[in-house]
Design a protein that fits this description.
The protein is α+β, with helices and mostly antiparallel strands. 48% of the residues lie in helices and 14% in strands. The chain has one domain: Arc Repressor Mutant, subunit A (Orthogonal Bundle), CATH 1.10.10.10. The chain has a 3-stranded antiparallel sheet with strand order 1-3-2.
Amino acid sequence: MSQLPHPLKKEITLTEVLAALGDPIRLDIVSHLARAKKEVGWGEFEVCVGKATLSHHIKKLRLAGLINHRKDGKKCYLGLRKEINELYPGLLKSVLKKTGHK
């Protein structure tokens, strides 16, 4: 199974990151991944949307450069990209804190 494309570090823009974080479902996903501090299996967290809609939100987060989406056989794993804190130190922590997502 081929891996999905992710933007290079130099391609990640603040505009795309903030746009991706502007949706409550995506903010919930990022919050869960931030609390986990490790990769999480696709089905290991609950969101109030169907699979197709979840897939759309995961794609938006991946293309914005916020998450890494790794496939291993038939399983998919998600995790926050460390590059976000390198590019925008404290951004995720501040956004999650201000929105009540700790």
